Amino acid sequence: MTLRTTLDFLLHDWLDTTGLTSRERFADHNRETFDAVLDTCERIAREKYAPFNRLVDTQEPHFDGDQVTLPQATHDAFKAYAESGMLSAAQDYDIGGMQLPYSVEAAANAFFACASVSIGSSLLSVGNANLLMAHGTELQKQVFAYNEFSGRWAGTMCLSEPQAGSSLSDVATRAVPDGEGFESDPLGARYRLRGNKMWISSGEHELTENIVHLVLAKIPDADGKLVPGTRGISLFIVPKKLVNAEGQLTGVRNDVALAGLNHKLGWRGTTNTLLNFGEGKFPVDGQAGGPFGNGAGAVGYLVGQPGKGLACMFHMMNEARIGVGIAATMLGMAGYYASLDYAKNRPQGRPITGAGKDAAAPQTRIIEHADVKRMLLTQKAYCEGALALELYCARLIDEQHTGTAQDAEDARLLLEVLTPIAKSWPSEWCLEANSLAIQVHGGYGYTRDFPVEQYWRDNRLNMIHEGTHGIQAMDLLGRKVLMEEGKGLTLLSHRIMATVNRCNGIPALAPHAKALARALQDVGVATQKAWSTGVPGEALANAVPYMQAFGHTVLAWIWLDVAGCALDNDPQQETLETQGHVGCAKFFFHYELPKINAWLGVVQSRDLTCATFPEGAF
Question: pLDDT tens across 221-239, in order?
């Protein structure tokens, strides 16, 4: 199976994406228009991204103290992507969009992630613009979001700081009103910002004429003190170059300076930056020379209400988490395809017969060895299962935006529970797939003559991107399964049991259905026992094992549902495609789902071995 045949099955056979065309927003679309989008993106990825994946890894961004230089291939790839219209694919026609379902957009973007995940920066630009469409003023949308959708400008998200990575409560960047009349600026209440932001992807480049930074900062109180915790965080638009209310560059550089580039293990084609805001390198004239003196202070425009910035930013963060999940999935998939090709062509070893090995017999290809098949099947089950999960979540977003009131509410609840899994599960298990791809290659897997070592390096970052495993796990067990009296978890359980009940009637899948029902019950018991004492420290001590078990249960459900769909279309398993789906489901239930017992054991007992281990004993 190719990536395209897999996407076609998941989109049209499993998720019935074409059925969305009966809705007003998508009425101009049909299977042909969806296929045309996939065709275009597949072609651009093949021509402008894939051939340069190694080049952007070895020719890293260079900063000469004045500007960042990127390879020409990166400029060409971004230009082709922007001209395709994919930056605004889901937007309204009247602002240049295609009104494309998000599920189709996500599937189309999978080609680029598979071809070269680090060559472009479109994910953050689209997320940035989407946030402004949800929370910005009309003029902020027109000036900033529309220019990002067109590809004229790019966007970032600026959260972390050198002293405060994931702990946003400790954000120290300050935003103070920019003199008299600051509230009346047409682009939004105008502030001056000062602080430092770390790990900012695509924070500086020359791909576009401007970069729109979305920056979290705190507005001091009347005593000049910052409000502790996240309650005091506000959100600001801070453009690299200042613009007027018509979206034209004014010729004034904002006080945002690149302090340096971070050199990461992977994603080397994307600039990763430390940015200094408001330190006076590019002073902006203003009233009284700016509140920080001498014109210092980066000009920023308030988005939404003061002190409500984190809620706005989560709009972008949640979207980015699904994007990271897709990136992790497709890096795993790229490694799988590479190792599958290698295994089909690499002769090594001989078959073992009752008479032992015959050294004079011809060598066999390594794909004929059972253990190599195990490694390939593990990769296939992880990566194709993760892709199905990501597209399912994308389909929920379509439902949230265009479904009936009840369907939209159900989609919201399901997304609350599934988003931590959509981010964390692929970033752990598709990374494991990349490790297995290296193993299939043997010693060659560790060399740069083959691409699998780069796929592993690129994917290793996704366990950190948009919140670590620990953060996602605490979000899942500490908030998402409990919120609104457990409505999201209850709804997900009902969806899973609907699949169980349907597949109980399919002989090839009935044993798996029974196993999934037991697993779901075990997760429910573990959830209750984790919180039985009401002590967060006890409940959350094993949040990551809980998330691993929860994630494996979700993926078992996904595989069972996919296999059921495949057998509906092909009851006799006459095609290799159906055999692949059913075989992957069988593999996952035999080899993967049993792992949850060990994970849930420490959750149910509220085991405190890790929490109470004395620091000095390490």
Answer: 988 899 888 888 999 999 9
Q: How many helices (H) and strands (E) does the chain have?
A: 20, 12
DSSP strands (E only) in 405-530:
none
Residues 420, 176: Cα–Cα separation, whole Å:
34
Whether residue 195 contacts residue 277, with contact meaning beta carbons closer than 8 Å, is answered with yes
Least confident of 154-168, 194-208, 523-537: 154-168
Coil/strand/helix, residue 257: strand
Q: What is the amino acid identity at position 483?
A: M
Helix (H), strand (E) at residue 211: strand 210-218
Residue 138 annotated in active site: no
CB 436 within 8 A of CB 456: no
Distance CA 62, CA 69 (A): 5
Give the tokens for residue 155: 């966007």
Question: Could you read off the pLDDT of 9-46 as tens digits, one per residue?
Answer: 999 999 999 999 999 999 999 999 999 999 999 999 99
| Cα angle 313, 298, 235; round to 5 | 15
**pLDDT digits over 160-189, tens only?**
999 877 778 889 999 999 989 999 999 999
Determine contact, residues 121/78, Cβ cutoff 8 Å: yes
Residue 382 CA, distance from chain mean position: 16
Above 90 in pLDDT, residue 581?
A: yes
Cα distance between residue 239 and residue 153, in whole Å: 10
d(CA 256, CA 204): 10
Q: Which of residues 542 and 294 earns the better pLDDT score?
A: 542
Beta-carbon contacts of residue 30 (< 8 Å; ≥ 6 apart): 18, 21
Which one from 47, 466, 577, 615 is the annotated catalytic residue?
466
Which pLDDT score is estimated for 163? 86
Amino acid letter, 107: A
Rounded to whole angstroms, the Cα distance separating 192 from 284 reads: 10
pLDDT at 288: 46
In whole angstroms, how far apart are CA 258 and each of 67, 151, 275?
Answer: 9, 22, 5
- Cβ partners under 8 Å of residue 402, min gap 6: 20, 23, 24, 25, 26, 408
Contact 588, 385 (CB under 8 A): yes
